[in-house]
Amino acid sequence: MPKPSVPHAGTVCVPCRLAAIGAVVLTLAGGFAYTAGWLTPARLTAPRIINTFEAAAGQPHPGYRRNHAKGLCVEGYFDSNGAGTTLSHAAVFAPGRTPVTGRFAVPGGNPSAPDTSSPVRSLALQFTLSNGEQWRTGMNSTPVFAVHTPAQFYQQLVAAKPDPATGKPNPDALKAFYAANPETKPFQAWVKAHPPSSSLANAAYYGINAFLFTDGSSNTRAVRWAMVPETPYAPITDAQKAEKNFLAADLNQRLESGPLRWHLILTAAQPGDPTDDATLQWPDERQHIDAGTLVLERTTSQEDGTCRDINFDPTILPAGIQPSDDPLLAARSAAYAQSYQRRTREEALHPALHQTQANGAHS
Fold it and tell me: Which domains are assigned to the chain?
C-alpha cells in the first residue's frame, strides 16, 4: 500500500492547516455548545433552571432577579468580637467592623407577589473586608432546604409552574413531587411547626449549606451559620395575612427607632455530620460560637440602592472559607450568574426600567 504523501520540511500544507484550524474551532464550539446544553437538551443547565424560574413566575418580569424578585436593600456593618478566629483566619472574623450591604426578599420571580406568597423570608449579605476581599452569602429563614440536589430543585420548580387554567400552581403536582421526594419532609415539618415571622427584623436567617473553615493553624472544619435576631420572634398576625406589602413598611418603621441587630452564630460540625445535604440539620449539641453582631442601620430602594448591582453568589468567599461538597452551591452560583446577566442586559437595553419599576426588586 503506498504511503500517504508528507510535505517536505519547510513547506506549507494549506489543506492540512485549514483542517487543523477547523478542528480547533469545532472543538471550541462543541465545548461551548455542551456547556450551554445545546447538544444535550436533557442536561440540567443554569439557563434551563432560570427559564423554569421565569415560567413559574407566570409572565416575564424584565430587569428583575429571576428568584427573590421582591425585596429591598439594607446597609450597615458587622462588628466582629474575634471569637470566629477559632474556626477561620478570614479577615472578617478579626476584631473590628466590616461594612455590609444586604438585601431582604421573599422567594419567587414575581416582584408584585404578596408578602404572604411564601412562608420563607431571605437575607443576602455582602461583607467588604478591609483587605479587599468579599464574603457574600444568601440565607433563608428556615434551617434546612427543601431539596438535596439541583435535579430535585428543578423538579420542584416544574411542579410549581402555574396551571394555565387557574394561574396558580397545581396542588396535585406539588403533592406528587413531595411524595416522590421524601428528602423534603424535614423542610415541610419545620415550616408546619414554625409560622412565618411578623417582621423581617425578628426572623433568624440560616446559611443552610455547609462551608469549610480553616483556622490560622491550617485546621479545617465544616461550618454552618445563622443570623439570630435580638428582636424577639413573633408570628405573623391575621391582620398582616390580609396585607400585600407589610414587610418593607414594618422594617422601615422599626429602623426609625434605631438600628436592628443579629448575632452571627457559627456551628461547627463533628465527623460524620453531613456536609453535602442541606435537607438535614446537625445535632443541637454541636459547638456554637457567637462571632459578632450584624447591625443594619437603613434601607434603600432596590431600584437604585446599593444592593441593586450585587450578585449574591454564595461561593464568593474570603481566604479562610471554602465551599463544601454540597452540590447545591455550584448550582446556586451558576443560576445566580445567569439571572444577573439577564437582568443587567435588560436594564442596559431599557434604561427606563429603573424609573418604571418603582415597587419591584432586582437580582
Answer: 44-356 (2.40.180.10)
